[in-house]
Every structure is written in C-alpha cells, then in structure tokens.
Specification:
This protein is mainly alpha-helical. It has one domain. 78% of the residues lie in helices and 1% in strands.
Length: 519
C-alpha cells in the first residue's frame, strides 16, 4: 500500500517537475548569455540586458512559431513529436546560422521614422522595450495555446515604444494599414490554396474507383510540384541573404530540379504501390516522405527569416552602442546569430510540443494528404505574397491553411450527407439491397459521377430508400463541425489583439524605463 501511494505521489508531481526542469534550462541559457556578454565580450550593462531579452525572445519564437512548420506533419502521423523536434531544431539552427544574413534592418518593417528618435540611448531603450513586450506576448500566447505571429508581436512592440518615445507622428500608418490587412490576407490565401490542393487530391485520387492506379499517375506529379515550389521558395526566401536570385530564374531552376525529381519518384511510387491495398490509408502513406522533406525546408527557411525577429533588435542595439548613432541597417555579429539560433532551438525543445499539438491535431483532424496540402500552401502563399509585396505572416498562412482544409472537409461531408439524405426524399418502398447498392455506387463515384447520380435522383429515376431513422441521422451528420470552433475563436482573438497588446505593453515598459532613468 505504501509503495502504491509513493508511486501515485511521484506521478502527481511529474508535471511540476517537468515544468521546473524546463524553467531551469531556460534560465541557464539566459545566465549563459549574461556570462558570455559581460565576461567574454566585456559588454555594457545595456548590451547585457538586450542580449538577455533577445535570448528570451528567441526561446518564445521557438516555443510558438516553429509549430507551424512541423505541426501538420506530427498531427498526420508522418513524424513523431520527438522526430519533429529534432528535425526542426537542426533545420531552424542551420537556416539561422547559414542563411540568416550579415545585416538586418534596425526598424522592423519601417513602421516608425528613426529620424524622430532623439538620441541613441532613447533608441536603445525603445528597442529593448519592443523586444521585451514582443517576447512577453509570445509567452502569454504560448501558455494559452494560441499560435500567433512573431513578426506582428515585434511590430506591435516597435510601434508602441516608438509612439511612447516620439508621439503618434513617428508611425508610418500606411505601413500599419498594410500589416493590418495581412491579418485577413494571410489566412484567407493560405486556406484557399490548401483547400484547392485537397480538392484536387480528392478529385484525382480519393474519389477514383482504382485509387492506387490514380496515385501512381498523380502523386509523382504532386511531389514534383512540391519540389518545384519549395526549391523556388528556398531560393527566394531561405537563401535570399546569401544568394540573390530573381523569381524567373528561381522558377526555372526549380522546374529543372522538379523534372529530375519526377523521373526519379515515378518508378519509386509505382513499386511502392505494388503490394498496397486499394484504400485511402495506403494513398496517405505515399505522402509521408514528402511531408518530412517539406517540414525540414519550412524550418530552414523560417530559421533564415524569422530569427531576425529575435536578433534584429539585438543587432540594432549592439550597433547603436558601438557607433553611438542610429542607422537604417545593422551588422549581425556571429554571437548574436548564435543566440538567436540556440534560443529558437531550445524554446522548441522545451515548450514547442504544446503548440505543435494545437496546430497538428486540435483544430481539425489531419492525415498525410491534408498535411501535404498545408505545407504546399505555406510555400506557395509566401512566394505569391512576396512578389505582390504583401506583408503576410507565415503563422497566419499555416494556421489559415489548417482551417481551410478543415472547412473543405466540412463542406464535402455536408454535401455528401445532404445528397444521401435526398435519396430518402425521392424514393420510397424499395428494399435494402437496392439502397445499399446505390449508396456504394455513390460513395466510390468521382465528383462528376456523384453530380450525375444526384441529377438522376432529382429526375426521380433512381431506386433507393433509407429508413426514417437513417434519414434523421444523416440530417444531423451533415451539420457536424469538423473544425473545432473553440480553437477558431481563440486563435482569431489572439491574432486581433497581438499588435495592440504588444504595443501597449511596450509603451508601458518604455515609460517605466524612462521614469526610472529620470529622463
């Protein structure tokens, strides 16, 4: 009895112990930064403070933002949680260090006018307030399980601290209007493209009588499109700071890589399907490796681009302290880049699983083909948006794509249930075998075939009947929600308040700093 009580006590305290270990590891990282900057670099107290906050911001980016890249792969079963974390840590760090760039803009997105900032000390405190407020907001969002935009978090921080330092006139409100528009543009674009790819897969594979034969034809083409998309995406976004290439050239190089990939993948897919059963699960397995590939490249590009959200302000502060002025761009020392890369990796490993589960399984159920559509949407939307100069958020795109897939599933399921329900309305008095045969033919039909069957129903020529109980059940089923509304409301609310929340917090922090310094 005593042994059982001890085991129960140990199990009860496990969550608290894990939280203590996570907090301890994060604190050790921050302490390591303090020791390195103060002792190793002999930096000023301002640089030490900025480096600590930069590390804290990087941890929160890893905890919140990286989930978008690997969440769908985990939710679909293509990757385990451990495998996803290892893959993301490696590729995020590689992207940050290899392709993170040598310079960064000192004012994120150009949303405030640096000429209206009085001196370099004010600028340093402004950036510290912005960085700290963005990090705190990300921490809060992660705690409640809401994936939010890290870019919007730091933009809100810069805006709020900037207004506190220089008044309302310091802000570029037209730029802020563009960012506000991206709250709608990003998820709608991402959701529409993801839903379009899922509809294509359903039409060309899922609703075909011989699914494996269809998969042999279509999956190699889809993989080639994915390689083309991700090659272009990587050249335009992931490697843009070490290799400048225009869209046209990137598309041509990507097309060449995709063509070679198609020639390699086609016989591999053909052989893999030889001993598979002709069902959806078998088709889904064919998307596993492309998904892992996509998760790695999305993480690499994210590390190369979004590490700037953590180390950009830190690099700007370092530059201002070194040169005593405010410049439009700042060099990124290697130690600053390493802090960003390690912080993101640590945040993902310690706190990332919560948001990975949110994106991967708590919005809608994902399988490999649905997750593939989400990954494709993430890359294509960023390419389109960057060429149209639209300030979209990768977080909003990815989460919008998850919602798009979920809402398409709702639409397809509702349409199917309504169609079957109409059988009962048009046909009475037939035996069970006729009904079952009709339903079977309807289920295996292509989308075009289903439309023809429904026309037949409307014409009153079909021979099928459902029981009254079955008809009532179908009437309930087609109103079923496959997207969790509670998750939808929570995430949208978090998106709406991100910029104002981080902005207000930054202003409060800046006023506090100025009051304490007596200036």
């Amino acid at each position: 009895m005593a042994s059982r009580n001890n085991n129960d006590s140990i199990k009860a305290t496990l969550p608290a112990r894990r939280e203590l270990l996570r907090t301890g590891a994060a604190l050790m990282f921050i302490i390591g930064i303090v020791f390195f900057v103060e002792v190793g670099l002999k930096g000023s107290y301002l640089l030490v403070i900025a480096a600590m906050i930069g590390g804290y911001m990087a941890i929160n980016i890893g905890a919140n933002d990286v989930a978008n890249n690997v969440g769908p792969a985990v939710g679909s079963g293509a990757l385990t949680m451990t495998g996803a974390i290892i893959l993301a840590v490696v590729f995020e760090a590689a992207g940050a260090i290899i392709a993170g760039g040598e310079v960064v803009g000192t004012i994120k997105k150009g949303i405030i006018n640096p000429e209206m900032i009085g001196d370099s000390t004010t600028f340093v405190w402004l950036m510290i307030a912005a960085l700290l407020s963005g990090a705190i907001w990300l921490n809060v969002a992660t705690a409640v399980g809401a994936p939010v935009s890290t870019t919007h978090s730091i933009v809100g921080g810069v805006l709020g601290a900037g207004i506190a330092a220089g008044g309302l006139a310091i802000a570029d409100w037209s730029k802020m209007a563009e960012i506000a528009a991206s709250w709608v543009i990003s998820p709608v674009l991402g959701g529409g493209i993801a839903a379009g790819f899922l509809y294509l897969i359903k039409q060309t594979i899922t609703y075909r009588p011989d699914k494996l034969a269809a998969a042999r034809r279509v999956v190699p083409v889809l993989v080639a499109i994915m390689v083309w998309t991700f090659s272009t995406y990587l050249m335009l976004k992931g490697l843009k700071k070490i290799w400048k290439v225009e869209l046209g050239m990137a598309l041509l190089i990507g097309l060449a890589i995709a063509t070679v990939t198609y020639l390699i993948v086609r016989p591999v897919i053909s052989k893999a399907t030889e001993h598979m059963s002709d069902d959806i699960d078998s088709v889904n397995k064919l998307f596993t490796m492309p998904l892992i590939f996509a998760a790695g490249l999305l993480s690499f590009a994210h590390g190369a681009n979004d590490v700037a959200n953590a180390i950009g302000p830190l690099a700007a502060i370092n530059d201002a302290l070194m040169h005593g002025g405010i410049s439009s761009t700042a060099a990124i020392p290697l130690w600053v880049m390493v802090i960003g890369a390690l912080g993101i990796a640590l945040g993902l490993a310690l706190y990332g699983p919560k948001l990975v589960r949110t994106v991967g399984s708590e919005i809608t159920d994902l399988d490999q083909s649905r997750a593939f559509c989400i990954a494709m949407s993430a890359a294509i939307t960023v390419i389109i948006a960057s060429q149209m100069a639209l300030p979209v958020s990768s977080t909003h795109i990815a989460v919008g794509a998850v919602f798009g897939v979920g809402f398409l599933r709702e639409h397809v399921k509702a349409t199917y249930a309504k169609a079957v329900h109409s059988i009962e309305l048009h046909h009475q008095g037939d035996d069970r075998e006729v009904v079952e045969a009709f339903l079977h033919n309807f289920q295996i039909a292509t989308l075009r075939g289903r439309r023809l069957i429904l026309k037949e129903l409307e014409a009153g020529t079909s021979k099928a009947k459902l029981s009254e109980i079955e008809a009532q059940q179908l009437g309930i089923n087609y109103r079923e929600h496959l997207v969790k509304r509670s998750a939808l409301k929570k995430i949208i609310a978090a998106w709406i308040v991100t910029v104002p929340a981080s902005g207000l917090l930054a202003a409060l922090i800046f006023y506090t700093i100025r009051g304490m310094s007596g200036s």
